[in-house]
Amino acid sequence: MSTDIDINKKNDSALADDSNAHDTSDETNKNDIQRKVIHIDMDCFYAAVEMRENPNLKGKPVAVGGQANSRGVVAACNYEARKFGVHSAMPMSQAFQKCPQLITTPVNMDLYKSVSKIIHSIFQEFTDDIEPLSLDEAYLDVSDSSHCNGSATLIAQEIRQRIFASQNITASAGIAPNKFLAKVASDWNKPNGQKVITPNEVKAFVKELPVNAISGVGKVTAKRMTELGLKTCGDLEKLGLEGLLQHFGSFGDRLYNYSQGIDNRPVETDWIRKSLSVEDTFNKDLPNLESCLSEIDTIYQELLIRLERARQKQRLSAKSLVVKLRFNDFETTTIQMAGTAPDKEAYKRLCIDAWQRGQRPVRLIGLGLQFNPPDMPEQLSLLDECYSEEKPPPNL
Ligand code: TTP
Ligand code: MG
Ligand code: MG
User: Fold this and answer.
1) Measuring from atom 8 of ligand 1, which residue has the nearest CA?
2) Distance from residue 1's CA to the centre of ligand 3 (Å)
3) Is 71 in contact with 90 (CB distance < 8 Å)?
4) How are beta strands 103-105 and 62-65 bridged, if at all?
5) Is the CB of 136 inside a 6 Å radius of any atom of ligand 1?
6) 190 lines ligand 1 (CB under 6 A)
7) How far apart are CA 289 and CA 122, in angstroms?
8) How far apart are CA 220 and CA 215, in angstroms?
9) 42 lines ligand 1 (CB under 6 A)
10) Pocket test for ligand 1, best of 88, 134, 139, 192 (most atoms within 8 A of CB)
11) Which among 44, 8, 41, 34 has a CA at the least distance from the CA of 197?
12) 137 flagged as catalytic
């Protein structure tokens, strides 16, 4: 039988997968949905790719960038070079002063771009909700991912392992309830590490967080903060919203949120959602149609929650309702009908039809929606039922 825990066996790519469960108990309030955001950032990206290409460079200080004698700058340097004080954007001539044995290589952007593409494709195996920030970093919203039993920590670990296995370079990750904290966290255990900030840890974590860890706090703001004696996010919170607005203008608003660990910015993807679904694999096969129908209520509720969350990210206009059944011998059937909104009774009718195709115990039920391309007006009503698969419409 299904439980609350089982129901998150779901997948964004409509009714695609029969995978594992994770806890959904925090997903009930649509205005306060607990998100799981991962920020992934490659370690000394350009330099790491160069070291991979030329293993002789390993263990030696390496900088990628323009030539010292033509006023070039360091684009990236490895961690060995950093020990000498070399860093990105430093003139190469200065880098040589700090580290005379520095080995330099030119920038090979096409190569880095090709590696970046592969890394991105690894992200896509885990979620569609990806916001790339640069060639070497991205935010991933894995709140709805069913991989690794829904554990964002394990997902981050697996992504890093996959990147290493495929590209022989390392990545670091931050896992947190929002983008601000995930980005801070990915830097925490660099290189080749990760850090989790759980919702319970947020308040204590930000209290001690140095203000210069906040992305967006540049040199000028940092200087102003030092003058005001503001060292940590805890200090910012104490100053309060009015004080922050007074000293930092409109940025004060965001600073005040950050100082409490709040960041409601969504992970912004440029992809268009085509479908959404919720699946439930049962611990024990459902023996008959009646037991299948009685599961629909719970799965349907979950679908509504998921839909609400997806609608907070983009405008979605449904074009069809889909039901998937997987029978005890793993044979799977899907059935759909036109429809502009989720409808529990319609799903039940589809379930009846789908079940008739197999008439045996069921191990998985999925409910889903397919969406119109963004500029198409909403069309078709639930009355325009059209059955897509080999079965003719039933006599309802
Ligand atoms: P970063 O992620 O900032 O740095 P990094 O990957 O080299 O090192 P870290 O381990 O600290 O993440 O930048 C990614 C790549 O972007 C970097 O390898 C080279 C390029 N880059 C520049 O070309 N100029 C710059 O000023 C910076 C900061 C990065
Ligand atoms: Mg990096
Ligand atoms: Mg980066």
Assistant:
1) 44
2) 45
3) no
4) parallel
5) yes
6) yes
7) 39
8) 13
9) yes
10) 88
11) 34
12) yes
pLDDT in tens, the chain (396 residues): 332 222 233 333 334 333 322 223 333 333 346 899 999 999 999 999 999 999 999 999 999 999 878 889 999 999 999 999 999 999 999 999 999 999 999 999 999 999 999 999 999 999 988 999 999 999 999 998 888 988 999 999 999 999 999 999 999 999 999 999 999 999 999 999 999 999 999 999 999 999 999 988 988 899 999 999 999 999 999 999 999 999 999 899 999 999 999 999 999 887 788 899 998 889 899 999 999 999 999 999 999 998 998 888 788 999 999 999 999 999 999 999 999 999 999 999 999 999 999 999 999 999 999 999 887 544 444 333 333 333 333 333
Cα separation, 37 vs 176, whole angstroms: 5
Write down the pTM of the prediction. Answer: 0.70
Question: Could you tell me if the CB of 225 is within 6 A of ligand 1?
Answer: no
DSSP secondary structure letters along 174-225? EEESSHHHHHHHHHHT-SS-EEE--GGGHHHHHHH-BGGGSTT--HHHHHHH
Map out the domains of the chain with their CATH numbers: 1-32+272-396 (3.30.1490.100), 33-43+111-198 (3.30.70.270), 46-108 (3.40.1170.60), 204-259 (1.10.150.20)
Contact call for residues 214 and 230 (beta carbons, < 8 A): no
Catalytic residue among 27, 50, 80, 137: 137
Ligand 1 atom at shortest distance from the alpha carbon of 46: 18
Lookup: tokens for 192 = 């080749």
User: Which amino acid does the sequence have at 91?
Assistant: P
153: Cα separation from own chain's centroid: 12
97 phi, psi to nearest 5 deg? -65, -40
Measured from the CB, is residue 88 less than 6 Å from ligand 1? yes
Query: C-alpha 172: how far from its chain's center?
Result: 15
Ligand 1, pocket-test mutation among 45, 49, 170, 215, most atoms within 8 A of CB? 45
Total residue length of the chain = 396
Q: What is the largest CA-CA distance in the chain?
A: 84
